[in-house]
Every structure is written in structure tokens, then in C-alpha cells.
Design a protein that fits this description.
about 260 residues; 11 helices; extended
């Protein structure tokens, strides 16, 4: 070996981190390559079979991403951290609501009347229970908005892979947040498409486990009901807009036609 002395400053810790990242990426490539591992996941195998059939028939179809990358794994880890943080905040506020109800039930009739008089006057009564401090990591967002922000921060071409690295425990917890995203009035259903796409991808990945889990049945039924309601609403909205555009087009054509 020939070593050349330069003016560049080399940090051993950074070089070791780069070497570890290269090893990690190489392992991911080996795990995602069935020729090297000799095994494939069910979604990956189905996607590969569809790709082969599409090549034979000359038709190109879309499928689930099968190649795992370091960026997708990191995105999946960020999503898991967001789920943990959001659940922690929701549990904190649930405990606050329960404690507040218990204190209100113990109030006397005079104290309750005094609270109602304060509210009727347009003032805010003093909180009977200390309100939990919001987490600074959320940056003023609600727990549901934080999960939405994390999902939108994942690149579209890495979203499928980030969902594939989710264990079933996190996938079942994410289903509940997806339902909250659709039902959240503050979102104004702007992110319903992302939530539905994530739900369909998770169903494809963990179908057998989801079917065998009784606790998710009610969540999935509610998700289907809300999803159909939103789709019917958007279908009617698009139909109304299309009819209005056709009417405007006919009016423009009638006004531009020469008078006979």
C-alpha cells in the first residue's frame, strides 16, 4: 500500500461510522436479494411473481417494494418513534381527563353552580387538575398531527418499505392512528389518501395476523365505514364538479357560436 499525506483532517470516529453504515447497507442488500439469502417474504415473493407474469404478458403492473434500503429502515424507525411518542401523549391526556372527571364528581352542588356561573359569564374557570405540559418534540402539534407529519416526511418511494419493516405490534397500533387521522376534524380530511394507502399496504403485509386478531376487528370495521363514507362524499363532489364544468363548457360553446 502507498499512503499519501494530505492536508485533510481525518476523524477516526466518522470513518468508523461510515464503515459501519457501509456494512449495514451491504447486509440490507444481501437480505433483500433472494439469490443470496435463499428466502423471501410473502409480499416480496408475490410482487416478484406478479412482475414475472407482467413481463411474460407484456403488461406492467405496480406492486410492493421489495428492496430494503437504509433510508427506508430509518424512516420506519422514525415512524415507530412517532407512534410511541403519540401514544404516550394520548395516555397522558386520557389520565388527565379521568382525573378531572373524578374531581368534578366530588364537587358539592354550590361548587358546581359556581363553576357554571363562571362559564356562563364567558370566563374560564381555574383548572381543578394540573394540565399536562405539552411535549416540546411535538412542536405544538397534536399526537395525531405528529403521526401525520411523520408519514408525510417519508418519501413516497420509501413508504411501502418503511411500512414493511414495522412489526405487527406497531402495525396494529398504527391502524388506530390511521382511523384517528380520518376522523380528525382539524385535518379536514386532507390526508385521507395517505391514511388509506398505509392501511391497504399494512393489510397486504400482515393479512393473516390481522384476520386472527380479534381486537382489530372493530377498528377495521370502523375504518371501512368511515373510508366508504369519505369516498362516497368525494365521488359526489367530483360528480357535481364535472356536471358544473360540462354546463360551463356548453355555455361557452353557445356564446362563441355565430348567431344565425
Amino acid at each position: 500500500r502507498i499512503w499519501e499525506r494530505t492536508d485533510d483532517i481525518v476523524f477516526l470516529e466518522e470513518e468508523r461510522e461510515k464503515e459501519m453504515e457501509n456494512i449495514f447497507d451491504a447486509k440490507l442488500d444481501n437480505q433483500s436479494d433472494p439469490a443470496k439469502t435463499g428466502s423471501m417474504s410473502v409480499p416480496a415473493l408475490q410482487a416478484q411473481l406478479k412482475a414475472k407474469e407482467s413481463q411474460m404478458t407484456g403488461q406492467i403492473e405496480s406492486g410492493i417494494a421489495t428492496k430494503r434500503t437504509g433510508e427506508a429502515v430509518q424512516a420506519g424507525e422514525r415512524l415507530m418513534d412517532a407512534i410511541d411518542l403519540a401514544e404516550e401523549e394520548l395516555q397522558k391526556y386520557d389520565a388527565y381527563e379521568k382525573a378531572l372527571i373524578e374531581v368534578q364528581e366530588k364537587l358539592s352542588e354550590d361548587e358546581k353552580r359556581h363553576q357554571r356561573d363562571i362559564i356562563a359569564s364567558g370566563k374560564t374557570p381555574e383548572s381543578l387538575v394540573a394540565k399536562p405540559q405539552p411535549n416540546l418534540i411535538l412542536l405544538g402539534r397534536t399526537p395525531v398531527q405528529h403521526v401525520v407529519h411523520t408519514l408525510l416526511g417519508i418519501k413516497p418511494n420509501e413508504l411501502d418499505e418503511a411500512l414493511m419493516v414495522q412489526p405487527f405490534g406497531y402495525a396494529s397500533r398504527l391502524f388506530r392512528f390511521l382511523l384517528l387521522i380520518i376522523n380528525d376534524p382539524s385535518q379536514q380530511h386532507m390526508h385521507a389518501e395517505v391514511a388509506i394507502k398505509c392501511a391497504i399496504t399494512l393489510l397486504r403485509i400482515h393479512f393473516k395476523q390481522i384476520v386472527a386478531t380479534q381486537s382489530l376487528n372493530q377498528t377495521l370495521l370502523e375504518f371501512r365505514r368511515v373510508m366508504r363514507k369519505r369516498l362516497y362524499k368525494y365521488q359526489n363532489l367530483i360528480g357535481t364538479n364535472m356536471a358544473a364544468l360540462k354546463y360551463i363548457k356548453s355555455q361557452v360553446l353557445a356564446s362563441s357560436a355565430p348567431n344565425l
